[in-house]
Each structure stands twice: as C-alpha cells, then as structure tokens.
Amino acid sequence: MPVKIVLNESEIPREWYNIAADMPNPMQPPLHPGTHQPVGPEDLAPVFPMNLIEQEVSTERWIRIPDEVLDKLLLWRPTPLYRAHKLEKFLNCPVKIYYKNEGVSPAGSHKPNTAIPQAYYNKVFGVKRISTETGAGQWGSALSFACSQFGLEAKVYMVRISYEQKPYRRLMMNTWGATCVPSPSTETEAGRKMLAIDPNSPGSLGIAISEAVEDAVTSEAQGRPLTRYSLGSVLNHVLLHQSIIGLEAQKQLAQVGDYPDIVIGCAGGGSNFAGISFPFVRDKIAGKQIQIIAVEPMSCPTMTRGPFLYDFGDTMQMTPLLPMHTLGHAFIPAPVHAGGLRYHGMAPLVSQLILDGLVEPRAVYQLETFTAGVTWARTEGFISAPETNHALAAVFQEAKKAKEEGKEKVILVNWSGHGLVDLAAYDAFFQGKLVDYEMPQDEIELALKALEGFPKPNFS
User: Fold this and answer.
1) Which of 46, 207, 349, 453 shows the greatest Cβ crowding within 10 Å of its Cβ?
2) What is the pLDDT of residue 336?
C-alpha cells in the first residue's frame, strides 16, 4: 500500500464544483443592511469585481477553471493524498486514515487555491490593488503570493494579536511585496473608532474585515489605484475555488479502491472544510452513507453554540447581512492559538448544510488539539498549523470511537497547512502556558444582543 497517492498534472480537475446546484434547501439570500431586501450584483460592485460576483450568485453545478489559473495552480497541484500508516500503527484502531496535504503550496496552506483565482479575476477586471484582512496570516500570505504572480499591489490588515504572535507570516507577505499593518490600525475610520474604545484591542477578524472593506470602497476618493476587497473564506466563490481539494481526493481514493466513512476538516469561516467535504456532501445528498464533521475551537463555538441568524460579516456593519451561525459581529475572541478559526460567523453554505443535517459541527479544547498535533508530528512527521490540529483532534476521537464500537472505518482529513511559522504556539504548549478556555454562555448572550431587531431567517 503506497504512502502517497498522486495524480499527474494532466489529471488536475478542470472545473470547480458548486454545491449550490445540489443543496436540498437553497441558501437564503444576503440582505442589504439598509433595506433588508436581497442584495443584487450592483450592491456588491464597489467591493468585488463583477466576474467574481457572478460566481458568488451562480447556481451552475460546474464552473470551468481558466487556463491562466490552472497554470499557476500547477506550481503545487495536484497535492498528494497520504495514507497515515505510522499514525494508524500508533493508534492501534481499526481505521484507515488518509490526509490531503495542502501544506505543499508556496504559502504553506490551502489558501492559495482561492487567492490565485481571485487575483486573476481582479486582474482581468482591471483592478490594480487588492485589500484584505488576515487572522493567523495564512490568508494574507496566500493573497500576497497570488498578487505577486499577477502584478497586483496588496494591502493586508492583520489581526493585532496574530501580528504580534506570528512575525514570520508578516515577513512572508513583505517578501511577496505586500504591505501588512496590525488591525485595528490608525489608517481607517473603522480602526480609529475601535482604538478609541480600546487602545489595547487584540483585534478580531471582524474588525480587520471592516478596515479592508473601507480601504477598498474609499480607494478612489483617497487617490489610490483602483482597489477591490478580497476575502479568504465564508463567501460562496471562495468555497467554490476550494472544491478542487475534494475533487482531487475523490480521484486519488478511487485509485486505491477506497471511499471515506468520515470526512473531517477544521472550520473558521469554512473554506478548507468546504474544500475537502463539498464533493462528498454531494454524494451524501445522492444517498451515500458518510459522516462529515466540521471542527471548531471550544473558545469560538460559532457552529455548536451560535444560533442561525442574519448578521454582519464584519464588526463595523459594512457588509451585507448574511444568514449564518454566528456569535455576533461584536464578538472579540480570546487570544488563544486558534488563529484563523476565531471568526464570529460561519459560511452561509456550511451553515445551511448544518441545518439540513448534512454536516456535523464539533468543538474541541485547545490542549487536546496540541496533543493531537504533537502526536501527529512524532508519527507522520509533519508539524501542523494550530488550526489544522483541530481537525486532527477529531480524527483521534473518531479512531478511538471505531475501536470502542469494533467497526472498521476509513477517515479522510484535510491537512490544511503546516505550522513551521507557528512554533511559538508549540513552545507555549510545551511550557505549560496554554489552558483550555470555553466561552461562557453569558458572553455569547451579551454578544448576540447586538442582533436584536435584525431580520430573521426563514425556517419554514
């Protein structure tokens, strides 16, 4: 049995898969924050290029990947599918464990899978400059890399706590030519407002998104080159681009005659989870018996404890209202080492699939994730990003469960990125400085008070 299952370059998928074509209940529409009516393409035009807006609202099942995008993706794709033989032996459970290694990209994570097409479509539309936010720095570094590939300028607002914890991510962005500033910053009205409230704010993805959106929509008035905003998760077109992960995995598993009983990914905004799982969710809708698990931090329990409501995607209420599981747009996460998983909302597509019982959300504690990550490194060899460790913790849980039940199972997990620039988090773990943190219920209820009076999703 091989360790690596690889595809030839000629076997790379030529189309992305759009789950919106197959969902039993369609996603409810984003709403205009002023009128509470469904937003139209023109409402989004100041923020995104129209060619990406068309993908955002598309219900076509398959969308062709442009040759110019494939040319860039071939730098690291198709990514290898590994069989985790050494971990299986260590666990001594009746499971086969496969993992898709997305850490082989130039930026070291799955994020370039959408950064490259987003940079391409912006370039084709005539955009000269892209603004964005980043949490742990995976997305910011990926977009910086992609912009360098297409000759675009990049401006990144990085959540302050991560800016301080992960200087090497910032240096990666600088190396690819991007400008990166800590958020909240003094460069936008949104940032200045937050600093006036709390000069020592650790920041959040919601605040950083507000700053990046403001940067884009005010670019013309500020005399900057034509700028549009880019998001690394949550939105439909981002999840669409990431589907290449699961489509490759299906081909690779077919090579060895296997099919997963369980598919697992970590989920902050939902992009890497959707990437590995949506092609398999399609199979589940068609009747396959398969368990699909999205894993989040206990400190940011968006899917497991956040209600399904309309909420803003950012703190300063600049985005449309999105139908999603949410902890409230005013939520400020605890400064735990979960990086990009500390977002208050979940992708509307993933949220709808949870409502429909097609996806199972699960929350895990911080210490369990690092224990899983260290065990993984000492068996499989690769050092995982802290976000990825959440998915690995669920793999360990399911392997032990299979042993208790006496059932043989095949597990597929998305190894979404390496942790070679996250070693400070491992150092804190080894020194016993990390603790488990579970978000108190009264904090959730307080954060959700900001949503009172918002329109409610239709549950009929």
Assistant:
1) 207
2) 64
